[in-house]
Design a protein that fits this description.
The complex is a heterotrimer of chains A (303), B (267) and C (341).
Chain A (H helix, E strand, L loop, with lengths): L1 H41 L2 E3 L5 E5 L2 H7 E3 L6 E3 L1 H33 L3 H16 L2 H12 L4 H9 L12 H26 L3 H8 L4 H29 L3 H6 L7 H9 L5 H32 L1
Helix pairs in contact in A: 1-12, 2-12, 3-7, 3-9, 4-7, 5-7, 7-9, 8-9, 9-12, 11-12
Chain B lengths: L13 H22 L17 H7 L1 H32 L6 H15 L2 H19 L5 H25 L3 H8 L4 H30 L2 H6 L7 H11 L3 H27 L2
Helix pairs in contact in B: 2-11, 3-6, 3-8, 4-6, 6-8, 7-8, 8-11
Chain C lengths: L1 H16 L5 E7 L5 H11 L2 E7 L2 H10 L6 E2 L3 H9 L23 E2 L2 E2 L4 E14 L11 H4 L9 E3 L3 H11 L9 H14 L3 E3 L4 H6 L5 E5 H10 L3 E4 L5 E10 L6 H11 L2 H11 L32 E3 L5 H14 L2
Helix pairs in contact in C: 6-7, 7-12
The chains are: A mainly alpha (303), B mainly alpha (267), C alpha/beta (341).
């Protein structure tokens, strides 16, 4: 009797839970998740002559990602054009993640080891750039590294150089911009991990005459690893899909996947290829996330 | 042995690096702000203090339109996303975990995981269909798109607050024969209010920031401030853009300060 | 909360209805429309013109083709007009509503892309050439070798406007072919030249005018009027006409089939064929227009500008680009994709 009532109550709670979530789900399905299915469909169509698509089934877009038909002799060869863009995107994103870690780790550590008041203030200082408009921050970098920008003007004024150093419109500029823009995404989860870390462990380890670096590697790092992975994922994923930063700092020659996708929907006039590239990007992101979930769960398992 | 006392705060080089990072984070923004007050037209050569670029930017009809449009979209997107996020948070926290909840949780966080460019392209196609079919080309598309990707940002502080809340008060209210609605209206909602306002603000900033999705969804004459700026950065890098940027930075700082105050008050 | 919501509702309502009457949506190239022209038009007719920018013919076409953009007028280049006509994207003009149609200069009336001007009215015309900073390179700039086989001084400093037809046509003429050729031997040669040159470029981007003026760019494949504007701020910027052949173009205004403000569009089209107003268009973007009698309304410095007056010996090298056949277009697109990787 009571179990039936409990079950009924349980069902009621469940229904209420769904009903309450329904409006959010509805909005997300029509304007975030649902449209992704359209992309999948479009990747199997033929491109229209001047953009858009012809409603004819075709796997050309998918074949086209890896292979390109030579326009002159009709032979198929590896589409090194696309592969080099993918490779550049992955490479720059990995560099960005690595350097964000190199700079983010000491910063998060520094914040975590301050007094409570100082910590709040420093956290606030990290949060401001994080929430500042991405375009504004990229523009700020642009103003510094362009040929007639602050850096070159200053170096010429000092007499160190007499013609501007070409930084903007290079891969390095894109990497620099992304590291700058996404650094707070590394610092915040790292800080959260340090914050939970019991500093007394350090003293214990140190009493065992471990060197500082040994302590860091064997005591600190294992404990904060989930934070490191979270930070890396948070930096890697937006870097991979970056659009604004490479567009402003890359000069249209050093494209990343995001820009290449946009090109297909604009001047490139190959929507199915753009759609197939989007799905590919999505798959790479999903793999990165799956790796993250696996690592995170394993670490939790160890407790 | 005294000199071997381990001080966690002192790892060689860490402090130097950290301070360098803070300087590097603020130097570009600082220079950007500084040069918005430049008397000359260069964003790199200082020619004296002047406020001329602010009224100049504001005299530009396109800047004014884009600002108004951005604020309209952000207001609606913040209200809508926070409203649905409050409901979803009530539906997913403080209950037994079920498979359904994991699904809802994943869905809500989906905009954080899918690269913006992919969503943007998908929306371009979908809204293209709807625009042709219905003939409606208003701001609604931008508002709906923004509302969707703002949901996780609104949801986060609300969920955190709900999870930290004491159930005892609600139980007490229920014991006094308050209906669930009364209990919510007079007990839960007031307690939740700081988090709701925090969610509103995060959603508002997120909407105001967006470039990529707006770029693909907008119809004729629907430039938002960021899409307008993107065009300007590539075409005429005048100090006007510095002035607009400075105002955006100012707005962010004000909002975040308020946000910090609100979320800390309850703790 | 309630107050906030109702305030928001009022805000939305006001933005939704502000645009109910007397507006016009112009879809035009960036940095190409004189704000004074629009102010004058609004003062005379009460119609508010909103301009949305695009960067390239291909982008504009693809946005229009996608539908639902909400644009009334578009400004494609000559070689794109036939595509718009064939796809039914633009509508035939009712010339009775355009009394100023008689002002179109005779040489711009019976143009191959729109005989009798039944679909389009002239906006501006010009050429594609080489912008070079004379401080950096003082040699011969009347050659496409500037970007296809760059002199030492310019390696790594050249911008190339990413406009497919212009760039490929320049390359084809450079290797001795002609625009829109289907001759695979020539196409292959052009591709090889482009691919070999690409590593020596700095960027492929629009928006070169301010960057040329500020020395952020030292050379660029670009449009004459835009280079003219850069030269007005920085007299080191010179413009060269490649003797191997360079594209001439004319951009014309067309009325889209799904335009919503048709009456306003006709008023605007008629307005811009008034010589004084055509002069305003040129005064801003610094290209010639196709309207008779507009000369007195142009700035004096345009009359003898080297960017406007093509030297006699190079005149024969300028060619209007035809609309490529689908076959040629396929080659173009394939080479272009390879180039933009």
């Amino acid at each position: 009797m009571s179990s039936a009532a409990e079950q009924a109550a349980d069902r009621k709670v469940r229904r209420a839970s769904w009903l309450l979530s329904a409006p959010a789900l509805f909005l997300l399905i029509i304007a975030a998740s649902g449209p992704l299915i359209i992309i999948l469909i479009y990747s199997f169509l033929e491109p229209g002559k001047y953009g858009n698509v012809e409603w004819v089934f075709s796997t050309d877009a998918w074949v086209g990602i890896l292979y390109s038909r030579d326009i002159f002799d009709g032979t198929y060869k590896l589409a090194d054009a696309h592969l080099s863009i993918f490779w550049r995107s992955v490479k720059l994103s990995l560099y960005t993640t690595l350097f964000a870690f190199v700079f983010g780790f000491p910063t998060a550590w520094f914040i975590a080891t301050r007094s409570a008041r100082m910590r709040t203030a420093l956290l606030f200082l990290i949060t401001i750039p994080f929430w500042t408009n991405l375009l504004v921050r990229t523009f700020a970098i642009n103003q510094i590294i362009r040929n007639e920008g602050v850096l070159n003007t200053f170096l010429i004024w000092l007499g160190v150089i007499d013609t501007p150093i070409q930084i903007i419109y290079t891969d390095f500029a894109v990497f620099l911009g992304m590291t700058y823009v996404y650094l707070p995404l590394m610092v915040l989860p790292l800080f959260a991990a340090f914050d939970r870390f019991d500093m007394r462990l350090l003293e214990a380890a140190y009493d065992l005459y471990a060197s500082r670096w040994q302590v860091l590697r064997h005591v600190v790092f294992p404990v904060v690893k989930p934070g490191v992975i979270a930070g890396s994922i948070l930096v890697f994923i937006p870097s991979l899909g970056a659009f604004v930063t490479p567009r402003i700092l890359g000069g249209g020659r050093n494209m990343m996947i995001g820009n290449f996708i946009e090109l297909q929907f604009g001047a490139g006039r190959n929507w199915p290829l753009g759609a197939a590239l989007s799905v590919t990007l999505l798959v790479i992101v999903a793999v990165a996330l799956a790796v993250y979930v696996r690592f995170a769960n394993r670490d939790n398992g160890h407790g | 042995m005294a000199d071997r006392t381990f001080s966690a705060a002192r790892l060689p080089g860490f402090s130097t690096l950290a301070i360098m990072v803070f300087v590097m984070l603020y130097l570009p923004i600082g220079l950007l702000v500084l040069f918005s007050f430049n008397a000359g037209p260069s964003p790199a050569i200082w020619e004296g203090f002047s406020l001329q670029w602010y009224p100049r930017a504001w005299a530009n009809e396109q800047v004014k339109d884009a600002t108004f449009r951005s604020l309209t979209i952000a207001t609606f997107a913040a209200l809508i996303s926070t409203f649905v996020a409050v409901l979803a948070a009530l539906g997913t926290t403080r209950r037994k975990r079920t498979g359904g909840q994991t699904f809802v949780y994943l869905m809500i966080n989906q905009p954080l995981m899918v690269p913006e460019i992919v969503t943007a392209v998908a929306l371009l196609i979908l809204f293209g269909f709807i625009k042709v079919a219905t003939g409606y080309q208003g701001l609604g598309y931008l508002i709906i798109a923004h509302s969707a990707f703002c949901i996780p940002f609104a949801y986060l502080p609300i969920r955190a607050r709900l999870e930290g809340m004491d159930l005892a008060l609600e139980t007490a209210a229920a014991d006094l024969y308050a209906t669930p609605w009364q209990a919510f209206r007079h007990v839960t909602l007031p307690l939740l209010m700081p988090a709701i306002i925090a969610g509103l603000m995060l959603a508002f900033i997120t909407s105001l920031d967006d470039v990529v999705i707006s770029l693909f969804v907008k119809s004729a004459g629907q430039d938002t401030l960021p899409t307008y700026m993107l065009g300007q950065i590539r075409r005429n890098m005048t100090v006007e853009v510095n002035a607009i940027s400075t105002l955006l930075i100012g707005l962010t700082v004000v909002m975040l300060t308020a946000f910090f105050m609100l979320t800390r008050r309850g703790d | 909360m309630k107050k906030l919501l109702s305030a928001a509702a009022v805000l939305l309502a006001s933005t939704a209805f502000a645009s109910a009457e007397g507006e016009l949506q112009l879809f035009n190239w960036g940095d190409y429309t004189n704000p004074e022209l629009l102010e004058k038009f609004e003062a005379e007719t009460g119609i508010k013109v909103t301009v949305t920018d695009y960067d390239s013919n291909d982008t504009a076409l693809s946005k229009v083709e996608a539908g639902g953009g909400g644009y009334d007028l578009v400004v494609p280049s000559a070689n794109y007009i036939q595509i718009y006509v064939e796809k039914g994207l633009i509508q035939k003009l009712d010339l009775a509503k355009l009394p100023n149609h008689v002002n179109i200069a005779p040489e711009w009336r019976d143009v191959p892309w729109d005989p009798g001007r039944n679909y389009t009215v002239p906006w501006q015309w010009g050429s594609v050439g080489m912008a070079v900073n004379s401080d950096t390179y003082s040699g011969d700039i009347n050659t496409s070798a500037i970007f296809l086989d760059p002199p030492e001084e310019l390696v790594g400093k050249i911008n190339v406007a990413p406009e497919m037809n212009d760039v490929l046509s320049l390359a084809l003429m450079y290797v001795g072919g002609e625009a829109c050729t289907e001759d695979t031997a020539v196409l292959k040669k052009a591709r090889d030249v482009l691919m070999a040159a690409k590593p020596k470029w700095q960027s492929m981007d629009y928006g070169a005018t301010p960057k040329l003026a500020s020395n952020d760019m030292l050379a660029s494949v670009y449009w004459n009027g835009a280079v003219f504007r850069a030269r007005l701020q920085n007299d080191k910027v010179k413009f060269g006409y490649p003797r191997e052949g360079f594209p001439l173009w004319m951009d014309s205004v067309a009325l889209l089939s799904d335009a919503r403000n048709v009456d306003e569009a006709y008023q605007f089209l008629n307005f811009i064929m008034e010589p004084e107003n055509a002069g305003l268009i040129s005064a801003f973007a610094r290209y010639a227009n196709g309207i008779s009698g507009s000369d007195p309304f142009m700035p004096d410095d345009m009359k003898d500008a080297p960017e406007i007056l093509i030297p006699e010996d190079l005149k024969a090298s300028g060619h209007f680009l035809p609309t490529c056949s689908p076959k040629a277009l396929e080659y173009y697109t394939a080479i272009w994709t390879e180039l933009r990787k």
